[in-house]
Amino acid sequence: xxxxxxxxxxxxxxxxxxMDAVEAAKSGHPGLPxxxxxxxxxxxxxxxxxxxxxxxxxxxxxxxxxxxxxxxxLYSVLHLIGVKGVSLDDIKAFRQLGSKxxxxxxxxxxxxxxxxxxxxxxGLAMSVGFxxxxxxxxxxxGKLVDHMTYVLASDGDLMEGISQEAITLAxxxxxxxxxxxxxxxxxxxxxxxxxSDTTDQLKRFESxxxxxxxxxxxxxxxxxxxxEAAKKSDKPVLIACVTTIGYGSPNKAGKSSxxxxxxxxxxxxxxxxxxxxxxxxxxxxxxxxALWGATAKRGAQARAEWLKRxxxxxxxxxxxxxxxxxxxxxxxTKAMKxxxxxxxAKPQEIATRRAGEITLEHISPVLPELISGSADLTGSNxxxxxxxxxxxxxxxxxxxxxxxxREHAMAAAMNGMALHGGLIPASGTFLVFSDYCRPSIxxxxxxxxxxxxxxxxxxxxxxxxxxxxxPVEHVAALRAIPNCDVFRPCDLTExxxxxxxxxxxxxxxxxxxxxxxxxxxxxxxxxxxxxxASGAYExxxxxxxxxxxxxxxGSEVSLAVKARSMLLAEGIxxxxxxxxxxxxxxxxxxxxxxxxIGRPKVKIAIEAGIRLGWDAIIGADxxxxxxxxxxxxxxxxxxxxxxxxxxxxxxxAAKGKLKx
Length: 660
Prior knowledge:
Elements: H1 4-25, H2 31-47, E1 62-65, H3 71-81, H4 88-92, H5 122-141, E2 149-153, H6 155-159, H7 161-173, E3 178-184, E4 187-188, E5 191-192, H8 201-207, E6 211-216, H9 220-231, E7 237-242, H10 265-275, H11 286-293, H12 296-312, H13 314-325, H14 330-345, E8 350-351, H15 352-363, E9 370-374, H16 378-381, E10 400-402, H17 407-420, E11 424-430, H18 434-446, E12 452-456, H19 474-479, E13 485-487, H20 492-504, E14 510-514, E15 518-519, E16 537-540, E17 548-552, H21 556-569, E18 574-578, H22 582-586, H23 590-597, E19 602-606, H24 615-618, E20 623-625, H25 636-642, H26 647-658
Parallel strand pairs: 1-2, 2-3, 3-7, 6-7, 9-10, 9-11, 11-12, 12-14, 13-14, 17-18, 17-19, 19-20
Antiparallel strand pairs: 4-5, 8-15, 16-18
């Protein structure tokens, strides 16, 4: 531990860079970096196992700035410790278009940023996935995986509802290598925290199975002792660090006015004078840079020792590197091929949720990186297979996680596992509860993470559960998220292909919308080509130029097939196009899209959801048979009849358009 003067110099370097950057941008949040600078200095200088020469070293400690509005704290530290991807020019370009230092940390955009944060609570919840990923891989690879996850969280992070789900999950699983440093400054945008919250956070965390303590967030010795104790805990740990927001500012310290606005030129000058910082804008003296640069030595030594352990076990090294690569093994390709052959040879009338389970039964044994789970709907989602053991408190030998009724935390934790590396997270809930997962799904897409969201009970086919459980707008809403593949397969073959697309896609999430009700096996081919990958394809032709083309997804494809037979019986040539993924189809070349859509006189789409999105295929003048409101309680077949989503309705619409 350095003497107090040297510590203050290092912490003030963070404060100065943060204040200068926010002032230059005329935008930003200086209060948190100023208040939490002592915490970050102690953590990075004395505890964090991190080598700035290799910010992606697999066994590094993870630092997650859940309070993403304080991004300048992270950018300042990354620059000061010597991460090459964050230069002084980058600091000067804070919040400018195209800069590496955007307003909130963005994964993949700035070297050294572990995850995108900004929506409060998300970073904290993702950290549970990071810590869980570390424990799962440590069980498989031993001491090659042995690191901590540290989180800097704000009052806002702890107030967001997702935090409750996250901390109870972490406490239940005894994720003892997770440490949350709470910037306990008692201030929110509206003023003192007391205007909106009086929660005893230490008792709250302790009741959830955490160890919790409170220290002076400006006392480096106290902070260091608390972190040292946390590293030895058998529980996840909360350290409440009592700080002053805007520390050092004569007129704004301890006030909400320092939270989200530049200090202003006069206050900036006065603050630097009070801190004893005599240097110009963006100026860091050589001796202070040297102090920060020295922090890299500990991380470099730890990485060198880790590399020796890695090289000492060639077989383990090969498996470890294969897991980190994210590539699918050859055995996976064989398993998927065998599954499609079985589907064609032995047609079954099953729900696509069961088809998803069959798919997992084939691929899970050859894909140890796949981590599955469910939000207390295991028997309904069908996301657990016999080869998956259960992840239990302190026991991480399994590959199936009982998330409990915590959809928010489940989705965020999956992001954390994906970001950690070496794992492919997939979990299930009902499609109607995708609303609870949506913020995390959006972040999966934004961060280009391979996360598989299995969403069953995908339509009014839920039947008796009624409109609260019958999703009608959810598929369309999920399709609206950029870089998110949404699949609604019609049978076992399409379900297997949807899983294949999801696993092959290493740059974005996938949603698999699966049925509760049984469906016939419509695909008869046993070919190796993945037709679902193109988003849409002709399932049944018309044996001539079609007058009618029926487009459908999921459970409604079988209705389209029935309607086609009825039309053919009346001498009307019709064809069926299965559309398991509108997103994928619209991304195809125009020539392919035109070929699949064709030029029929009548275009009809049928889906047990709202019309939004279908006009891109059938046009504004096309006929859509689906939902306009919410569902109704009753047996699935009768509910479909009630809302007019039937083969007979398709036939009537076609004949009406043809005037026959």
